[in-house]
Amino acid sequence: AVQRATTRLRWRPEQTGTGAHADRTAREIDEQADHAAELVRTWVPSVRSGRVWDQLALPVPERVRFLACGSSRHAAEVGARVLRRLAGTPCEVTVASEHDPADQVPGELTVAVSQSGETADVLRALDALPGPLLAVTNSPTSSLARRADAVFDLGVGPELGVAATKTFTAQVLAGVFLALSSAVARGRLPRSSTAELLDELSATPEALHRAGRLALHRADELAERLAPQPGFLFVARGAALPYAAEGALKLEELTYRWAQCHPAGEFKHGPLALVEPGTPVVVVEDGAAALDTIVHEVSARGADVLRVGWGEGCAFGVLDRPEPHAWGPLESIAALQHLARTLAARLGRDVDRPRNLAKSVTVV
Ligand code: F6R
């Protein structure tokens, strides 16, 4: 079973300000809100009735193992968290290159998340699976898709920048659709909560648009300020962590500057030693969930704190609400991607083709 969103590209440079001659990566960051809208339109009705798994011709899974690498792994972390929290489904996320068949559990569903569907580490991990395989991919004719029992086609069109941007967002949404559909099908959500969650989910494309516009407005000025910095720290908690990790990865691959991401509570166990006057610390907030302690700790040591979140004093005030969503602050990724891309351009990097990296990693 192959299920796809029918996507029309509707990138509007005049709305977003990245200009017709911007690099592909900038355009793909901008496009992602439109793709999110298409995905929401296509899938939310099936999520509401708990029938996403039916559409994929798979039973609602009792247990799930996500397999993925890089950005796709960060996206998988979001879906896994929602699946555990709202559907009560036991699941794990395995770095594909670290996959050990001895860890597999009989009957578990493997969900391989790979935009290219050609990542060798993912394909290699598919030998002797203990149950069915679902591919979440942007390439329904890929090796992964051909191997799978069912395919969730992201359908966001070719992604030409080496850095994953719009495919990351689409993968996050796919994982959330699968997780919420499980929760509905397993009777874990009262009807009123389902309606509320789906309203929130349906608002994410607009939130991504808004966050992208806001980020563009501030990115040049911040890139100027941050250009001399050799390294960056990213911090978050809970549902915001995968986005912070993805922001750090994007910054490293596009700017060639070091970027580490740690859970807030881990800072005092080591990374705090890295903070010196001027060190940029990007704080990815989840609604108004307090990260005051870490902000206080790093500020006291002279860090340049950049809050991505809600309320006063944010570098990017991308959240329009103090309450967190089950899937965390998805819209923050638009700001983190723009920050990385703008800083890379300011540093004269080849934004679409970062050194040493390939779009499909076909070697193990
Ligand atoms: C980062 C990036 C990589 C990929 C990773 C997996 O921007 O693009 O980390 O996410 O190589 O690729 P796919 O999703 O094709 O399996």
Based on the model shown, name its key terms.
binds fructose -6-phosphate; alpha/beta; about 375 residues; about 15% strand; 4-stranded parallel sheet; 6-stranded parallel sheet
Describe the structure.
- 52% of the residues are buried.
- By secondary structure, the chain is an alpha/beta fold.
- A six-stranded parallel β-sheet has the order 1-6-5-4-2-3. The protein has a four-stranded parallel β-sheet with strand order 8-7-9-10, with helices on both faces.
- The two termini are 28 Å apart.
- The protein has twelve helices and ten strands.
- α2 (24-48) runs antiparallel to α12 (332-346) and α4 (70-87) runs antiparallel to α10 (241-255).
- The chain is 43% helix and 13% strand.
- Fructose -6-phosphate binds at residues 69-72, 114-116, 119, 122, 163-164, 249, 253, 360-361.
